[in-house]
Every structure is written in structure tokens, then in C-alpha cells.
Design a protein that fits this description.
This protein is α/β, with parallel strands linked by helices and 274 residues long. The chain is built from ten helices and nine strands. The chain binds adenosine monophosphate.
Length: 274
């Protein structure tokens, strides 16, 4: 495995790769969710590039940029064992200059739900993903459904900018109790982790109701609210179609249920695709 830290070194290493290239962009503190993307990319491509970069432009003022977990050594070992060909871990200066042109998230889909609560987050996310896709020149890039809106916006960017890469959506990986894995779970105490189960429990409650043929969105949301009472604060429960338009009634095969809550001082998201 080549560990590269500069754009120039990445370009040089990339030139050596012939055939298909899978790419997994991450912010590090790798867990089994990241690993599932890495393993899938490994299986579906001849070569594999992983990036680890805590991207400052997608953090808002007052968010956890400085506190975000950094585990370079452990992450490097995970990538080595997973058969990664190139691990790209650049510095901020390597990725950005002072006065850059920017990419704006779409006016509606980029500014609802996560985009409403974290205005500007998706602009920064798209900016770094564009840079990383251009550098990796990947055949396929792998993104988790855990960040459903991110996945949708990256897919849209690739479409709108006619970029030559396939975006591959990957299933959410959870721990044995149902908590969706996230690098931010490390902020939680044990009690917090137990409380955080309310996210997946609320989605299970929605599934249960839908199985009983309860398709009314207002009814489903109220039941989910009761389960989410364990959280310090519920930021949103959204039931939308795949274009992120709010639904009044569940449409099987075209519905996402998304939740965002605060547990202790940590903001957590989860979702379910029906
Ligand atoms: P991050 O390091 O949080 O930026 O995540 C890097 C990639 O891993 C993104 O595409 C995420 O959606 C994905 N990811 C994070 N957590 C999970 C999970 N629990 N299951 C599946 N994918 C995940």
C-alpha cells in the first residue's frame, strides 16, 4: 500500500494503476461501516484508493472540526489489511488555496433537512468530493446510504457536471444493538449509546406500522416522536420520496424516512429506505 500525502504523489501513484479503480472517500476514524464500503470497492474493482481527510469546509462555525476523532495509525492498519492500493491523507493546505471558486449545492435539495440545519455543509462536502473524484479518476466511488442526502447530492453533481464516475450506494452498517455506526458515536458515553438506540428503534417502529398497512405519514411521525423522546432534542423526522419531496402517504419503493436528533452533545442521523 502506498501512503501519499500530496496531490503530486497521488497523481504519480494513480498513473501506475491500469484497469478499474474503486474509490472510498472518508474522514477517517474508520469503523465497520467504512470497511464495508472499502471491501465492496475492493471486490468490484481492480484497484482501490481510500482517502482520509477531515474536510474543514463542510464544518460550520462551532461544529466539531477540532474535536473530530483522528486515528491515523489505526486507520492505516485497517487500510493495509483491507488491500488498499493507495491511501491518500492530505493536509488542508494541499487541498485548498486561499481564494477558491466554489460549488453550490442545489437551492432546494441542498437546503432542506441536513442542509437547513447545517447551511453550507453540502457546499463544502461537494467541493471536496469534486476535488477527490478528479484526483482519483475512479471508475466507481462508494458512498453510504447513512448520509442519504449526501449520496443524493453527489449523484446529482456527477450527473449535472457530466463526470465520468459511477456512484455506488452502500447499505447502512449497524452495531449488534442497531445503532448505525458513525465516527461521532465515540463522543457518546455508554448511557448515551443506549439512548441513541432510539434512532433505529423509531425507524423500526415506522417499519412495524407500515407492515400493518399504516401508510399515513402524520400517524407514523407521531409514533416515531414518542420513541424519540429519549433524545435530548429531535431536529427532524422527514418522510420523503427519492427526490426528497415530502410525502403524505408512504409509497413503497419510493420512500425514505430520515431522522436527526441530539444525544448528549452529539448530533446523530439515521434513515430507512422503503
Ligand atoms: P465519513 O467518514 O463519516 O465522512 O464517511 C465516509 C463514508 O462512509 C460516507 O460515504 C458515509 O456515508 C459512509 N458511512 C459512514 N457510516 C456508515 C455506516 N454506518 N454504514 C455505511 N456507510 C457508512
Amino acid at each position: 500500500m502506498q501512503v501519499v500525502r500530496t496531490v503530486e504523489a497521488l497523481r504519480t501513484a494513480r498513473k501506475e494503476l491500469r484497469g478499474s479503480v474503486g474509490f472510498v472517500p472518508t474522514m477517517g476514524a474508520l469503523h465497520k461501516g467504512h470497511l464495508s464500503l472499502i471491501q465492496r470497492a475492493k471486490a468490484e474493482n481492480e484497484h482501490l484508493i481510500v482517502s482520509i481527510f477531515v474536510n474543514p469546509t463542510q464544518f460550520l462555525q462551532g461544529e466539531d472540526l477540532d474535536a473530530y476523532p483522528r486515528k491515523e495509525l489505526a486507520d492505516t492498519t485497517i487500510c493495509l489489511r483491507a488491500g488498499v492500493d493507495i491511501l491518500f491523507m492530505p493536509s488542508i493546505d494541499e487541498m485548498y488555496e486561499r481564494d477558491e471558486l466554489s460549488i453550490g449545492a442545489p437551492a432546494i435539495r441542498g437546503y432542506i433537512l441536513e442542509g437547513e440545519k447545517r447551511p453550507g455543509h453540502f457546499d463544502g462536502m461537494l467541493q471536496i468530493v469534486m476535488k477527490l473524484l478528479n484526483l482519483s479518476r475512479a471508475t466507481r466511488a462508494y458512498f453510504g446510504k447513512k448520509d442519504a442526502q449526501q449520496l443524493a447530492l453527489v449523484t446529482q453533481m456527477v450527473k449535472n457536471y457530466f463526470m465520468d464516475v459511477e456512484i455506488v450506494p452502500c447499505e447502512i452498517v449497524r452495531d449488534e444493538r442497531g445503532l448505525a455506526l458513525s465516527s461521532r458515536n465515540s463522543y457518546l458515553s455508554e448511557a448515551g449509546k443506549t439512548k441513541a438506540l432510539c434512532l433505529s428503534k423509531s425507524l423500526k417502529e415506522a417499519t412495524r406500522l407500515i407492515r400493518q398497512n399504516e401508510l399515513n405519514v402524520t400517524t407514523i411521525k407521531s409514533s416515531m416522536h414518542i420513541v424519540l423522546q429519549e433524545a435530548e432534542r429531535v431536529e427532524y423526522i422527514a418522510i420523503v420520496d427519492q427526490e426528497f419531496r415530502p410525502l403524505s402517504s408512504i409509497e413503497r419503493g419510493n420512500t425514505m424516512i430520515l431522522v436527526a436528533v441530539w444525544i448528549e452533545k452529539t448530533r446523530l442521523i439515521d434513515n430507512l429506505w422503503l
